[in-house]
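Dear colleague,

Thank you for sharing your sequence with our group. We've completed the structure prediction you requested, and as agreed, I am returning the results in plain text so they can be pasted directly into your records. Please verify that the sequence below matches your submission; if there's any discrepancy, let me know and we will rerun it promptly.
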Amino acid sequence: MKINKLKYYDLTRELAITGFKMKYQGSFFGYLWSLMKPLFLFLILYIVFNNVFKLGSTIPYYAVYLLLGITLFQFFVETTSMCMGSIVGNGDLIRKVYFPRIIMPIAISLTSFATLILNLVVVAGFAMFSKVPFTFNIFILPLYLVEFYIFTISVSLFLAAIFVKFRDIGPIWEVIAQGLFYATPILYPTSLVPTRFLKILMLSPLAQVIQGARSTIISGNITTSWSVLGWYSVIPFILVITILGISYMVFQKMAAKFAEEV
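Please find the predicted structure tokens below.
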């Protein structure tokens, strides 16, 4: 049994590495294309919300604030969207070869996570260029990233499983993701959100992670779940673990019939 587990670990790693290489194979600019999308979106939104709505005057280092939020959210949306079709898109392989089906979305998520790390290096360079003061809070950032990855793979597993049966979930998820973008404090400061709604907003793992990650890079008036909820800030962590457990059970229960349904 241990040998089989090691074999599947190796398979997951190789699929993730191969996926990362294939992602940029045949592209002249390679990794830069993955960086261009969040940068282009950042540029447009920064011009609008900094110059038109003057949000830059209310948030310290607004450019870094915005770029980090977009980078993290793009990882979440792109990973969940790609993982959603991971089972259906590999139907021929699933019908021919047995392996734990969960490997497919996990490998894709690891490929996306590697890209996220590279993008965060660029964000760090941008923060240094913007002369954001360094604090030791930056060492807390990896904890937020681990939580964020767990949350993302949890949602991805659920979407990958139900997409096999219900293909309409694709466009539905696009609408939901668009709603989450505006419901999460990515563009705007939390000071614009009424207190009664802010408490509900900060219960979201997305808002909790993005604001927490910002607080590790930008010192100043960055609202975190702890500052809003106090001890109730453990609720987003509990939600992440709960969603992971539910998604894993749903995926494993439906996995037995994937070969018949894809």
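Summary note from our side: The mean pLDDT is 87.

Kind regards,
the structure core
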